[in-house]
What does this fold into?
Amino acid sequence: MKNSVTWKIGGEAGFGIISAGTMFARTYTRAGYHALVTNEYPSLIRGGHNLVTVRIATEKIEALNRDVHVLVALNRESVDFHKSELQEGSVIIYDPKDYEWNISDFSPSTVLLPVPFSKMVQELKGEPVMRNTVALGASMAVFGGPFEGLAKVIEDQFANKGNAVIDHNVAIARAGYEYVGKNFSGNQSCFLSPVVKREDQLLLNASEAVGLGAVRAGLKFAAIYPMTPINALISFLADHAGKLGIVYKQPEDEIAGIMMAIGASLAGVRSMVATSGGGFALMVEGLSFAGMIEVPLVIDLGMRVGPATGMPTWTEQAELQFAIHAGHGEFPRIVLAPSDAAEAYEQTIDAFNLADRYQVPVFVLTDKYINESQWCAPVSLFKKPVVIDRGKLARGDDLPADGSYRRYSLDTQDGVSLRSTPGMKNGHYYANSYEHDETGHVTEKAANRVAIVEKRLKKMIAMKADIQPPSVYGDVDGEITFVSWGSCKGPVLEAMKLLKQKKKSVRVVHFSWIYPFPVEETKRILTMKSRMIIVEQNVTGQLASLIREHTGIEITEKLLKYDGRPWYPEELVEKTI
Amino acid sequence: MVSGGVSRKNDMTITADSFKTGFLPTWCPGCGDFGIWMSLKDALAKLTIGPDDGLLVYGIGCHGNMYDWMNIYGCAGLHGRTLPIAQGAKLANHKLPVIVVSGDGDCLGEGGNHFMHAAKRNPDLTVIIHDNQVYGLTTGQASPTAKQGFKTKSTPEGVEDEPVNPLALAITSGATFVARGFAGDIPGLTQLIIQAISHKGFAVLDVLQPCATFDKVHTYGWYRQRLYKLEAENYAPDHKLRAIERAMEWGDRIPTGIFYKEERSTSEDREPALAGGVLVHSQSDEMCIDELLKEFI
It folds into this structure.
């Protein structure tokens, strides 16, 4: 019996790999297991090699590891590509019609489990794409899984297609399940230990989590131009917009997107944009504009491999310094970086409140890895009460009738002034991209320029009240300190567990709040007593630079990965020891 | 008329003077912007849209400086970006009159892509294009509408490219109200602005205006010799191809008036979320998502 198993399914795009991964994981999350689903695919619509990896465990998991218990190959290439990742005892489920594999083709020795996917689908009068369903049933048998759980997931998946389609799919999955039962019953090496289900869990990617957080926070308007890796957020918003009373608009380009969102925010609704680095490059003038006219704005910046078009479907963390420094001129902003779907949900809600509280742009810095991987999270997280803080937003009946309202009043401790929205009586003003006075009128007087710049920048000081210190995990006096941010958290925490087994004491200092940088907290936490190792997914060590800039602390030992693939915990261990 | 939920029924005193700010225009003497400014103030007063009742979105260029002497909710955007800002504001508050004050460089150069896409969506906006063929604020370079042969600082040998035709572009892109006015005809322009704002849909009003400083050719006199009113010729603005034909007319005779008009659903009409009311007024507290969560379990 195993506490953690990893299942991979590979094939061409169009083979139904992604949906198979979700259905497989959902079968287990519903039963109370933890799951993490990742995918790898090239930037193509059809063809090319696609891979979905699902790790199922009895306890909470933070990342994948290098285990491969089962490889389902829907074509020959899937074995060719992933042969080198197989371990002693890995089970290969494949169709002998694709290729007659021999045990001698593999080292270390693996278990071959030929299942005639195509023939079975044909016999049951299914479409070729349903080979993935045979594979799901077969895999369920290998893990000793609950077939009825899978049947229910299939039923829900095809709920709007009618009973005939449901029954057909269940029958095909059952054929796979029974085939393995008949031909492979002796091998229980991959059976999962039982778990007790505590509560319902969601299985969702970070883009969907951003969407849920935004809805919960009262999002009313989003203008998002399609771009990997934030397309799941578009689907989520477009599918639910009408029902939730949200407007989702597809703009003509990212410049229009951010300008529309600024226009909507100016008019008083909570609004957001989402994009990746290339799209954000176009938005940069809009960011500066938002900073100048002091409108709240939430930006989901989903990082992927750059520069330029880069490797669009692969992951990277190279936009940290870009998010902090983007925009001409100097103006305040906030940068948050969630590590997984649960944190993406929470930080998106925070982002809307912070944007309103300080009337500034707020970034939620996600990446391909978290946006397109599916994470499990307890339903109670999403049902917790949410506080909505609109900051200094006028109600409409609270503006002086004598015309003395000043939108950019300098009479403010925190740099934030009362904000009216168009249509409010006695509230008219100019949201002016030119430098302006308290009313919004253009002025180039030196004294005014200094005063209004200082008013805006005062927000950076006020924000200190909201800054979150880095989280600390593991041994406070660990001999090794890993320093990480965003989506590196999972692999780093898993590496810490592995190092502990090797009698190494490890501490993890993880940054989810990036900017304004938590200077004092970092100085206190990052003492030089232990061996400090920065872990990032970029080539220059952008967090390391930020830490040095703000604290003078130089972390010289850097584990940097920039091949587009997330860290494996084992990789971190090897590079540390 | 109700805008932004504020009833203005009791406020009957809106005149052109309601929009005074205490700042005086910095436009050159004789600039066509004066005529557009005065016509716009008159039109707003006649429509009883007061300083708290509407939003003007300005671009960057000589036209854009108008915000400083125009006492009404204003957003002086970035160069070329008026239309997306206006569309976002309109979707957030679709009862609010939103008027875009833009220029030929702003709207058709830097913002050309936005112009085309705004027209195809048909938001209930009015865009007034200050069209003088030249970039005045940067001291006299050719604009996208500059006619061939026009000598400017950036085209000392004369413009060689085809000019953009704002009217034909608007018609083919899907604008539902397309008109041309003249800055030297304030009563006529005021009427056109009123009709444009009253039209439900994307209203494009291209306004021919002399640049007194950088264009010695297209003067008030030059225009007056050539302009004629479509309405005087029993022209019916209900046919796209005929409208394009008139839009292409330029030379000894230059038409003004409404070229094309049709009723079509607006982008706001097509948003299910707006059927229940104004978005900014439905901005309530926390949303319940329990039903939504089931999709992910």
The radius of gyration of chain A is 26 Å. The first strand of chain A starts at residue 4 and ends at 13. Chain A touches chain B through 70 residues (CB under 8 Å). Residues 141 and 182 of chain A are 10 Å apart (CA to CA).
